[in-house]
From TrEMBL:
Belongs to the NAD(P)-dependent epimerase/dehydratase family. dTDP-glucose dehydratase subfamily. One of its GO terms (biological process) is nucleotide-sugar metabolic process. This is dTDP-glucose 4,6-dehydratase. It comes from Nitrosomonas communis. GO terms for molecular function: dTDP-glucose 4,6-dehydratase activity.
Length: 351
């Protein structure tokens, strides 16, 4: 079996669901259930003995040691993190505690577990660390996309914490030989994404007639990847990646934010007619806002034969439809905590 951390979050839940749709190998899912973790994402697995959910923190070494001893996973896929840049600007502490200290604690316990394995079990063990393109910093308009050897230049507390965790993972391979792999992926979108991130926020706000807040001039560029393509890339890295290597994952889909917002408005207009474009509102920019990210995903294609399946056009259509069909899910995540965050954050952006 495999151990997934953060499997109740956006990418983690998609990963667990896709894994079990394609394989009977059980998954232990360790998740703290922060505001971003939601067991409703995994409701379709209720009663499925292949999914073992453990409520816990990656900082809790005793708990992790016990579950490693009990279940003997052949791999750890580490997704658990604080993931929202805007939150990291307001309250960086949780990012340091989970993304840096938590990754260190998990790595350390994984190392002792791996060291005690013998023969083939030790050889086959893998620790896959799921990271982000934001560790590379910001690109100028015409600069070439990030390759795996691009220098690390993180600019937000979030990306700095992810960069630190990547370096720890690298060190555990280099110093102790732990068979780690690092993936650095671009912006994901798809089902179950918490509506604090650009794409679901725009869909959810538009459907309730609220302003669509575009930071600064809206010309910042992100490289979008449909979440299921990210999950298939992680599976491929686990299956065939070389320990100690890093793989960049991206969708070859660079788009300015304002174009994304217009595409969402057009799609909503087609599927649920109303004038959504009039809701677009330019607001105060995010401090330290990175201008452009772009991933050069040639290494994973060349070495592991992975390429995304969805284009942006097919992926965004599926995503908008999913949010239209799952308004109960949206209503449920609109808890008191979420509402408080949205109100205070966008009050500041109103400037
Ligand atoms: P998310 O915020 O939706 O989910 C994170 C999950 O981790 C939640 O279920 C949460 O409860 C859990 N978690 C948080 N702290 C924990 C702790 N201390 N112990 C155990 N569980 C904890 O995040 P996401 O967007 O699904 O991102 C998953 C991973 O992928 C993160 O490591 C993120 O850095 C990385 N990533 C995300 C993107 C993206 O576009 N979303 C792109 C590249 C990489
Ligand atoms: O690049 C990968 C990263 O992508 C992941 O590592 C992060 O976990 C994930 O959150 C994401 O970070 P971003 O900061 O790029 O994503 P976000 O959805 O917050 O914002 C996308 C762009 O849209 C960014 O340029 C800021 C802008 N934006 C965002 C929000 C929430 C707006 O203009 N208005 C908004 O209200």
């Amino acid at each position: 079996m495999i151990l997934v951390t953060g499997g109740a979050g956006f990418i983690g839940a998609n990963f667990v669901l896709d894994w079990l749709a394609q394989s009977d190998e059980p998954v232990i899912n360790l998740d703290k259930l922060t505001y971003a973790g939601n067991l409703q994402n995994l409701a379709s697995l209720e009663g499925d003995s292949r999914h073992i959910f453990i409520h816990g923190d990656i900082n809790d070494q005793q708990k992790i040691a016990t579950l490693l001893k009990q279940y003997h996973p052949r791999a750890i896929i580490h997704l658990a993190a604080e993931s929202h840049v805007d939150r990291s600007i307001h309250e960086p502490e949780a990012f340091i505690q989970t993304n840096i200290v938590g990754t260190f604690r998990l790595l350390d316990i994984a190392y002792y577990y791996w060291k005690e394995q013998e023969g083939e079990a030790q050889q086959a063990f893998r620790f896959v660390h799921v990271s982000t393109d934001e560790v590379y910093g910001s690109l100028c308009k015409d600069a070439p996309a990030f390759t795996e050897t691009h220098p690390y230049q993180p600019n937000s507390p979030y990306s700095a914490s992810k960069a630190s965790s990547d370096q720890l993972v690298r060190a555990y391979h280099h110093t102790y030989g732990l068979p780690t792999l690092i993936t650095n992926c671009s912006n994901n979108y798809g089902a179950f994404q918490f509506p604090e991130k650009l794409i679901p926020l725009m869909i959810v706000n538009a459907l309730s007639g609220k302003p669509l807040p575009v930071y600064g001039d809206g010309q910042q560029i992100r490289d979008w990847l449909y979440v299921k393509d990210h999950c298939s890339a992680i599976r491929r890295v686990l299956q065939a990646g070389i320990p100690g290597e890093t793989y960049n994952i991206g969708g070859w889909n660079e788009k300015p934010n304002i174009e994304i917002v217009h595409i969402i408005c057009d799609l909503l207009n087609e599927l649920h007619p109303a004038d959504y474009h009039k809701l677009i509102k330019y607001v105060t920019d995010r401090p330290g806002h990175d201008r452009r990210y772009a991933i050069d995903a040639r290494k994973i294609e060349r070495d592991l034969g992975w390429r995304p399946v969805e284009t942006f056009e097919t992926g965004i259509r599926k995503t908008v439809k999913w949010y239209l069909d799952h308004q109960d899910w949206v209503a449920n995540v609109h808890s008191g905590e979420y509402r408080k965050w949205i109100e205070s954050h966008y009050q500041e952006h109103a400037g």
